[in-house]
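Example (one chain per record):
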Amino acid sequence: MSVKSKVVARSQPDSQHFELDNVLSLNTEGARQRSVAEILLRAAQRIGGELALSARAERLLDVVDELLGVDTVALALLNDATSELEIVAGRGSFGVLADDCPAHEGLLLTVLRSARALKLTDVRADPRFADCDIALGTSTRAWIGAPLVTLTGAVGVVFAASPDVSAFSRDDEINLMSLAHAVAGQFYDALRLKSAGSHADELERREMLHRDAVEAVADVLWEQDENFRFNWISSIGTGSVTNKPIWQLGRTLEEAGVHLTAGEGWSLTDELQAHRPFRDFRIYVPGANGALDTFSLSGKPVFNGQGQFSGYRGVATDVTVHPSRGVSESVESTRADHAQLTAAVTLLERQLSACADLESLAAAGGDLSRLFDATTMILADVLHADAAHLLRLSPDGEALILEAGVGIDERRIGKVLFRDVKATLMALPMRATTPVVISAVDTTEVGSLFSSFLSEIKAECGVVAPVIVSGRPYGLLGVHLQRTREFSDADLQLIGSAAHLIGSAVERRNLEYFTEASIEHAPELVTRLDADLRCDYANVAFALETGIESDALIGQSLGELGVIPALQVESWRVAIRAVLRSGRERQCDLHLMTSRGLRSHRVRFIPDISTGVTPVSVLVVAHDVTELERARDECTALRLELVEQEKRHQQMVAELFVEQREQAHRDEDAAAIAGQLTRREVEILAMLTSGLTNQQIGSRLNLSTGTVRNHLGRLFPKLDVVDRTQAAVRAIELGLVQVGV
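Predicted structure:
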């Protein structure tokens, strides 16, 4: 038994000792859990602050190293293109595996398929993984891994290893699984961003290709505003073409003296007012020596993200025929080639612009119905389709409901358009990048489903693409034409990209709803404040604790409402402004006035970047630590009481020691004196102590009074006393006589 245990055993009852141990144990366990929770919260913030996938992976390995205390860690992510796990980051003996080792079987796929954490004390002794060198390294014994699982499924595995078979505990397994759950969504987003980046690079490459093609056949690139005035003109080559009086910023073609009615009765004004594209419209401009120069104009309308007309964009080519240019047949051939190439370039430009508009609208968030309506409208316009639709799968998976449409009776929106569609959807390839072309005479599963619909809208052909959300079918996006047409690869890619964007937007909104619901019903108090402590959001727990309805909190200052004590209002304001200025999280212990009185809280001030890169508000998360502090105070009081009892005990021990030492001295004196006394002197001393006089003593001992007096005279010096009373007291103290005998 230790010294501390002995002291407690002597000074405290057993029940009190047991209670103290429980308090200390609970306090230690609570501190450990808070430490792990803080690591997980920091992990989500640090990883979410990185945009690149590689940077997020490195931050995750930092957190795993801190959480488990090992330096052999790695992250493997699922490659959508190959459906294989690839190790994207590693440290220690796993570092050599990164970017070079696709894993087809073994530990990683076991964790991924089970969607559960796996901990092995000695992986090399487990026959299931005897051949799994890819996930081990050179000196691995203990191994632990956890899957990164989102609402859409598993996206990867984070794992660690150690040569020490006792390196990982059950708590490590739970903590690693919690970390994987906390950051899985961020790596899912990073993978999507990486895929979107590749798509953006491809779009940029195609844009450069199209611009080069335009520059090869056109002399002028131009743009007009919504009033058909030139707001941008760019010449190609020498720039002499733009010196013509018609190419002036701020003027329309009519203001420049150009007639907008062709010889065949085709009016460019009608096309412009109807916001329709036009090709090869010929205009004639006075040139040198009084001759007329001829320009071929082609343009297309431009719409913003809300579908509003914002102007025109197009090209112009000098097609003036000069005598030195050859015969008329050559001119006509050149015109035909030019018109064909211009049409192709214009179509590609429209498709690129449509993709950019849809991506901007999807990234802006907001109401999904606006995205649905804009998508069908843009597809119908770019592909010159007579109808476009977005069909949503019913909850039971048996019907398709019209969610948005162009060229379809608006009264049918929100109603079931097709029933018994489960078998048809099974026939579709469940990838948004592979649309299916259908026709009125199509006998396939998909064609049969749409045959009656095509007849209803008098369409001859169309394209449908499945919309996938979280790996499951959400609906169908399609366009239909009342004429036969061959759809190019670019057309199919445009429709597939639009379906992919819709699926991503729906999935992002579902995740937002899930996150908002988690915050709304969290046990912690959560509110969002600006620099003046005005509230624009408060969750259920915050409203219950403050006793103020959430609607009444919105737009109000918490200081004026008395939620924050008056003495702490300035402290809150300083903390929030510091977070807004630095963009970094801060923590402090503050007090909040709640319906249960003044409560102590551990408060985190987190910059809210949901509205942009620069935070304008702060998310305040308050964890009630009142009971924890009360338990800590009680524990401190118990410790102080133990200290006081220990002091009293030591004092008693010291006093007892002095008393025992004095008693030992008295025993030594008594033994020495007893050895000097005769039997007669002892008898006389006993009678003296009983209070007998000399005469009474002599009578009892048959001695004379003088003899008794003589014995007393010899006895007093031996006892170091001078009278009868002192002798009696001394005899009793030394135990030479027994009182009452």
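Caption: Residues 1-27, 98-104, 133-137 have pLDDT under 50 and may be disordered.
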